[in-house]
């Protein structure tokens, strides 16, 4: 996969473990073979808090980033530990706009049920969602292959069923994006 | 699959938009019911997500309109907590499903899976339906009414014999199509099918058109030319409007039919010809015979078999089939995405008498497709239907006055077209066309 001087920025937002950002960056480097950089942490996004829903509006975070962040990065993945939503859905794991510059993902829903103990699978899920949303930023669309990273996962179960790579067709789509 | 989101809240439209975009769907949005309906006139929508609570036009009202105008569009209702009753009402009115906002991502996924399954089933159904349509076509003649099925049987039967055939039918009933079908089913189908409209060829040119001419035979004959009777060699000659042939030409043709030989104009050597003759007329030839306008010997020669094509008003069950066929034909030709008739339009088309028969129907639909800016043809695209409903429009009274004028001239001239044309100061061919267009007939005394 080809690349330019630009890199993918992994940007922690609010309180989130260093490990989360590092895992995401490592997976982007290995799967997309693109240079990545973990950026300094941004403060808690209180502007995105919705009082009625007690959740954080993923769209608001993306808008804020697109309007105010001036970095030189090709694409930016924001990592947070917040309960994200978009208006029509009860929750989302992550959000990106097709062909956009910024995506946001959260580890919030990946903890083991009924506990805030780290679940061994949580970083892997976060990495999958990050790669999926980054795929959208590179204009990739959902894939019907249930093992592919671009498969739309609406639950932890479907997400866990996904492998840590793109199917043949999606890899090809990604490569065409860079050629 | 094309999807439309109708919701007054921008954030809702946006979240739907991104989700569908990411799943590779064609997606459009509308802020309210009016905008949605306007967009639907231009583009076909498979699935529509409609918010139930919108200002001006409610989701229920929009659903009602959609189900009326675009019954195959699937509507999913989006509702907020606390309006379940309205959602239930919507389901009763034909909504496919409803989503309670906000919903889990998997719920939207599930709704879409159900719809895709449903679409697959209806696609298979439509395919089978189109197979059925092929069965209702015989060569290029469309019809499934009992009278037409009988006609198809007769065509099949008479095609293999070499008997001359006289096709009777009002203007626009498709006499030439029947002649072509007979030719196609006959042993002569590898040879040419030559159609001549006797009403449009001036009397003076008829002989050279049919028999050909030798160079210098008359002024203007700068080359030797084969006539249609030679060109047809081995095939089928179709003489449309055979009632228009002059008595002298009737004698000449009668001789050809008996001798199977012709002599080019300006020549004296006979040439062998071989063809099958099919004639057609919208006139009552027996009545013309009584008035000595048509020769009895010629009549019996060309009329070994008679085939009568029923007028469209006597096979109204075929109107929807024909209308759909012409709509497909012309929306395809004009690349317009018009694919249906609004509900009461078909009722009105069925109620009309179609004096110009299938051709009038075809012309009406062609015109409607050209002028329409919507996805469905409505009654306003057929002004003559409006006219019959609300009395006379200005345009129609103009046509009516021309019709009256033509009738008067024809009556004065005793239905001698050449003389009537002189009275009207138009040429004979034009008058013939007008007679055909208005379906003018001599009043039977
Ligand atoms: Zn996605
Ligand atoms: Zn894939």
Give me the secondary-structure topology.
The complex is a heterodimer of chains A (179) and B (445).
Chain A: E1 8-12, H1 18-32, E2 36-38, E3 49-50, E4 55-57, H2 58-68, E5 75-80, E6 84-85, E7 94-96, E8 102-106, H3 122-137, H4 156-161, H5 168-178
Parallel strand pairs in A: 1-2, 1-5, 4-6, 5-8
Antiparallel strand pairs in A: 3-4, 7-8
Helix pairs in contact in A: 1-3
Chain B: E1 2-6, H1 10-22, E2 26-30, H2 33-42, E3 47-51, H3 59-69, E4 74-80, H4 84-92, E5 97-101, H5 105-135, E6 137-138, E7 141-142, H6 146-159, E8 165-168, H7 175-185, E9 193-197, H8 203-211, E10 212-213, E11 225-226, H9 228-231, E12 236-240, H10 247-259, E13 261-263, E14 270-272, E15 276-281, H11 285-290, H12 296-302, E16 305-308, H13 319-333, E17 340-341, H14 343-351, H15 357-371, E18 376-377, H16 383-390, H17 394-412, H18 417-424, H19 428-437
Parallel strand pairs in B: 1-2, 1-3, 3-4, 4-5, 8-15, 8-16, 9-12, 12-15, 17-18
Antiparallel strand pairs in B: 6-7, 10-11, 13-14
Bound molecules: zinc ion (2 copies).
Low-confidence stretches of chain A: none
Helix content of chain A: 25-40%
* Main sheet record of chain B: 5 strands, parallel
Mean pLDDT of chain A: 88
Question: What is the H level of CATH, i.e. the homologous superfamily of the largest domain in chain B?
Answer: P-loop containing nucleotide triphosphate hydrolases
* CATH superfamily grouping of chain A: Collagenase (Catalytic Domain)
CATH architecture of chain A: 3-Layer(aba) Sandwich
Largest interface: A-B, 20 and 22 residues
Strand content of chain A: 15-25%
């Amino acid at each position: 996969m080809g690349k330019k001087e630009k890199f993918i920025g992994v940007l922690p937002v609010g309180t989130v473990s260093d490990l989360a950002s590092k895992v995401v960056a490592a997976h982007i480097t290995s799967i997309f073979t693109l240079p990545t950089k973990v950026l300094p942490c941004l403060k808690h996004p209180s502007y995105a808090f919705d009082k009625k829903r007690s959740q954080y509006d993923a769209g608001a975070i993306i808008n804020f980033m697109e309007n105010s962040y001036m970095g030189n990065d090709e694409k930016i993945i924001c990592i947070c530990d917040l309960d994200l939503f978009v208006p029509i859905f009860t929750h989302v794991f992550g959000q990106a706009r097709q062909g956009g510059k910024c995506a946001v993902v959260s580890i919030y829903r990946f903890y083991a049920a009924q506990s805030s103990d780290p679940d061994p699978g949580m970083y892997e899920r976060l990495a999958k969602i990050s790669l999926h949303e980054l795929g959208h930023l590179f204009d990739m669309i959902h894939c019907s292959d249930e093992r592919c990273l671009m498969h739309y996962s609406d639950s932890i179960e479907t997400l866990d069923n996904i492998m840590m790579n793109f199917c043949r067709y999606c890899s090809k789509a990604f490569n065409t994006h860079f050629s | 699959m094309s999807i439309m989101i109708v919701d007054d809240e921008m954030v809702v439209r946006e979240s739907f938009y991104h989700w569908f975009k990411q799943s590779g769907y064609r997606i459009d949005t509308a802020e309210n019911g009016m905008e949605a309906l306007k967009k639907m006139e231009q583009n076909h929508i498979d699935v529509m997500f409609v918010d139930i609570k919108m200002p001006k036009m409610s989701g229920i009202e929009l659903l009602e309109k959609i189900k009326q105008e675009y019954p195959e569009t699937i509507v999913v209702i989006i509702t907020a907590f606390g309006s379940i009753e309205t959602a239930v009402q919507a389901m009763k009115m034909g909504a496919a499903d409803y989503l309670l906002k906000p919903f889990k991502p998997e719920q939207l996924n599930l709704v879409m899976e159900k719809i895709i399954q449903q679409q697959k089933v209806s696609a298979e159904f439509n395919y089978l339906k189109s197979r059925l349509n092929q069965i209702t076509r015989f060569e290029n003649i469309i019809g499934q009414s009992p009278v037409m099925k009988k006609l198809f049987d007769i065509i099949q039967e008479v095609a293999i014999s070499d008997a001359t055939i006289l096709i009777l039918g009002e203007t626009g009933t498709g006499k030439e199509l029947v002649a072509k079908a007979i030719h196609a089913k006959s042993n002569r189908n590898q040879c040419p099918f030559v159609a001549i409209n006797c009403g449009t060829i001036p009397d003076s040119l008829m002989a050279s058109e049919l028999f050909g001419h030798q160079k210098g035979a008359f002024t203007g004959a700068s080359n030797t030319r084969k006539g249609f009777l030679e060109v047809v060699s081995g095939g089928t000659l179709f003489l449309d409007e055979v009632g228009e042939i002059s008595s002298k030409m009737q004698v000449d043709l009668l001789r050809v039919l008996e001798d199977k030989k012709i002599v080019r104009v300006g020549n004296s050597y006979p040439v062998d010809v071989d063809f099958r003759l099919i004639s057609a007329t919208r006139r009552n030839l027996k009545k013309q015979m009584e008035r000595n306008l048509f020769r009895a010997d010629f009549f019996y020669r060309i009329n070994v078999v008679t085939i009568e094509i029923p007028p469209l008003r006597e096979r109204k069950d075929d109107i929807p089939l024909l209308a759909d066929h012409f709509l497909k034909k012309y929306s395809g030709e004009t690349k317009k995405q018009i694919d249906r008739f609004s509900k009461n339009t078909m009722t009105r088309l069925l109620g009309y008498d179609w004096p110009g028969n299938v051709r009038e129907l075809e012309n009406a639909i062609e015109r409607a497709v050209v002028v329409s800016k919507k996805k469905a043809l409505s009654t306003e695209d057929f002004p003559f239907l409006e006219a019959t409903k609300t009395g006379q429009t200005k345009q129609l009274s103009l046509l009516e006055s021309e019709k009256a004028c033509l009738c008067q001239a024809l009556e004065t001239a005793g239905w001698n077209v050449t003389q009537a044309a002189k009275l009207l100061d138009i040429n004979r061919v034009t008058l013939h066309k007008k007679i055909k267009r208005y379906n003018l007939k001599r009043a039977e005394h």
